[in-house]
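Course assignment 3, question 2. Fill in each field.
Student: A.L.
Task: Predict the tertiary structure for the chain below.
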Amino acid sequence: MAETATARTLRVELQAVHAEANEIVERYSVKRWQELLQLHQTLMAHEIFRAVPLSGNDRGLYETLHRAFPHDIVTKARFLGVLRTIFGLDSVNEKDKAKRALLKHLDGLHYWCENSTSKIPTSHTLGTLVLNWRLFLCAIRALREPAQSEVDLFHWSFLVFSSSGYLDDSPQATISRQQLYQIFNVLSPNHACSRVLNQRIAQADNLLPASVLVRDNIRFEHMRLLMAQPPLAELFSPATAATHFFHELTSPCIRNYLYLERKVAGDRAKCLRFLHQYKRRYMRKA
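Answer field:
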């Protein structure tokens, strides 16, 4: 199928973004997202960790983290302390390879964290590293549910930011303008990619009869209005057989992971569809 003019324009825009990447920042970004991907893969490799839900009950990651940290920003030390409790890592024996592997990944979680004055942590500032646990959880969700649509990812992320203790899908729930930008940029690996996203958010807002970005309290219906406008809707159109242009604005390791997982999910759905059609035809003949 021939590529549309819009798709060609988007592809050129993304090529320009990747071409202007700063080598030092890009190296930091790659390590940051590799940390998260390796942590996700460690969690999914063992049933004992997969059994801990992201949300939905008192043992969920969201519920436990919210009880410990009602606010967004938390120090790395406190954050890891709660995760150790959630995953039962407080006492790990030598024979428990799964827990030792997870503990190693958690202790090595440096690049996902930030210092209050510097985006890139150094050996002198590791003790004061902080992170936004809500953004961390939303990024984990994106990896755990790779086949979900952007709308589903943004909706779940909206609930994480708007809820207080338990995910509440109330139509009256709201977030701030800053949180809206954080949600749209949840997988953005650098400032160049964020600039593309933020410019398109502004362009989409300009097309609305009433601006969303001037609001102090933004509902999810307002986010849906933004996503329906061409500047953002174009990002959610296919870029490859399995991914969208939105996924092209992620770190290479995340992009490749999402492509493979979404392709497997798509192939599985296609096989099931063909099997269903075959069974239906067979039953008709019988």
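Instructor remarks: The chain has two domains: 1-21+165-286, 22-144. The chain has 14 helices and two strands.
Grade: pending
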